[in-house]
Design brief:
About 25% of the residues lie in helices and about 25% in strands. With about 270 residues, it is α+β, with helices and mostly antiparallel strands. It is globular, with a radius of gyration of 19 Å.
């Protein structure tokens, strides 16, 4: 049954939302750090667990342990890399981008932000990020979207890649969460339309995600549905799994927002 709401009810709900948002933002720093500098610093060889080059159009999955990190590096040019993850101990707990955006009051994910699971725990901390252009709203390419965009061309797509990832990890299609698109300068205008901001798209960027729990991680290297390039031409991306420094007491991702603090408290309860 469709329920009509009066303008007064709509206004009251909006006011409650804005009051709650104001309280949440009062805890947060006035500004997050600037993007990480380029070029990316070299990772010490002794810290590297594994390095993988994901060809354009392909995928990769890995076990990532708490205290390790992933560097996703666009050394070969502009690449959108889709990411999903599950808690190794209980794969029913998975990446949740709705909560990630909602409890941090932003869809602009970058250095200093965290990425939540659907159990209110922190999966990743974004410890470095030279891009600041990541999409947590649109999702990835599918066979249908690629067929419409690249007619007559044989392509691979993110949805099918993640179906293969899930299957190899003993999971199913229904276990695939919403995806985070790294290096995808997507913004939403006032009319609710998604746009690709070409001026914010560049090659050579990198992001580092620190694992805050043991996870199974899947990555797909396929063009974003809004990528303006009319040709299907994804380029390789380099992913490095490495041991990272232990977070300091004033670690920004752990202290930036009240919601992040609570998320890490939930992590501590799980680990205990």
């Amino acid at each position: 049954m469709h329920v009509r709401r009066s303008q007064e009810e709509i206004a009251a709900n909006r006011q409650r939302y804005e009051d709650h948002q104001k309280k949440g933002l009062e805890f947060a720093p006035k500004a997050f750090p600037a993007p990480s500098t380029l070029p990316a610093p070299q990772i010490e060889a002794a810290a590297i667990v594994h390095q993988e080059t994901i060809p354009g159009g392909w995928y990769w999955s890995t076990l990532l342990k708490r205290g390790e990190a992933l560097r996703i590096d666009q050394q070969h040019g502009g690449s959108t890399v889709a990411l999903i993850a599950w808690n190794t101990a209980d794969t029913s707990e998975r990446l949740n981008l709705v909560d990630t955006a909602k409890v941090q009051w932003t869809t602009a994910l970058g250095k200093g932000r965290v990425i939540f699971s659907d159990m209110g725990r922190v999966m990743f901390s974004m410890i470095e990020d030279s891009s600041g252009t990541h999409d947590c709203l649109m999702g990835g390419s599918t066979a249908a979207s690629n067929a419409a965009k690249y007619p007559g061309v044989k392509t691979r797509n993110t949805r099918d890649n993640f179906v293969l990832v899930a299957g190899k990890l003993g999971l199913d299609r229904r276990d695939i969460p919403a995806i985070l698109n790294l290096f995808a300068p997507v913004r939403l205008d006032d009319a609710g339309t998604f746009h690709w901001q070409e001026k914010r798209s560049s090659s050579g960027n990198y992001a580092e995600l620190r694992a805050e729990m043991d996870m199974l991680v899947g990555l797909s290297n396929c063009p974003h549905p809004l990528d303006p390039n009319p040709a299907y031409a994804p380029v390789p991306v380099i992913v490095t799994r490495f041991f990272c420094a232990a977070p300091a007491a004033d670690d920004l991702p752990r202290t930036a927002t009240a919601e992040a603090v609570r998320g890490f408290e939930n992590n501590a309860l799980m680990l205990a």
